[in-house]
Structures are given as C-alpha cells and as structure tokens.
Amino acid sequence: MSSDSRLSTTVEKLDGRWMSKRLARIIAFGFGAGLLRPAPGTWGTLLAWLLWAVGLVHLSNWGVAIFLAVALVYGCWACERVGQELGVPDHSGMVWDEMVAFWLILWLIPGSLFGQALAFVLFRLFDITKPRPIAQLDRRFKSGVGVMLDDLVAAVYALVVFWVISWVAV
Fold first, then answer.
1. In the chain, what are the domain boundaries?
2. Residue pLDDT, tens place only, 97-120
3. Contact between residue 105 and residue 68 where contact means Cβ atoms under 8 Å apart
4. Model confidence pTM above 0.85
5. How far apart are CA 55 and CA 60, in angstroms?
6. For 60-93, b where at least 16 C-beta lie within 10 A, e where not — what string?
C-alpha cells in the first residue's frame, strides 16, 4: 500500500496534491471544493452552481438527465472508494453528493437568479439540519450510495418547499 492510502482523517493532511493523485479523490472532493474551509459542503454547492451556470444549463433535458445519472453512479463509486481510503464513510470534504443533488434541483426549478438563490438556501438548510428521515439515512447507510442518498433526499425536501413557496407567492 502506498503511504498516502492509509491517511489520518485530519483535514490538514488532505490537500490538492493528495487529491490530484486519483480521479476518485478529485470527484469525491468536488475538484477541490471539499478542501475549502469552513463549510466544505457549501463550497461544493457553490461550485455546482457555477458549473451549472457556465455549462450544464446549456445541455438539453436528455443531456442533463444522462449527465446526472453518470454523475450519481460514478459519485457513489468514488465516494465509496475515498471513504474507505480515509476510514471515514462520509468525510466532510467529500462534496460530490452536494454537487449532484444541487444540479438536480437547478434542473427542476425555474432559471431565475432569485429562484436559484432560494433553492440554494433551502438545500443547504435541509442538508445541514438533516430533518427526518435524512439524519436516519445518513446514520444507517455508510457507503457511497449512503453518501449520495441523504443529499438527494435533502434536494427533494428543498424542491417541495421551493414549489410550495412558488405556489403561495403566485
């Protein structure tokens, strides 16, 4: 085993050099957004928003659907692998789950800046507070699928509240 394959889980040892050695790390750590402190999940979500604005928004619905499916499947694998490597199934620096979940939200809401900002706040609120059953999912499933699952449920919560607010505001 290489010397970096059995890392301590301290953030200080995780840096861009470490991350860049394996594609799974690059993906799981959201191209480096997960290395930013404080609040790596928020940084990952902000990067997802930026990537959406500069490229993903221009894909067709089928293109976005295929991209999200691939990002989800590959993200499950990458987060599983990196979580095993770190000895922490859902390390706070792994932000690919936030990114995929937020891309799903951005795909399903109107494209206004205000709507996207509201969706961002709602998603971060549900991802951070983890109301039922998000917290239970987060505790129960300790795998790459589990890493992705709780954020997808937080995205569903954010979407439901977004749509209720949109309906009431009209």
1. 11-169
2. 999 999 999 999 988 999 999 999
3. no
4. yes
5. 11
6. eeeebeebbeebbebbbebbbbbbebbeebbbeb
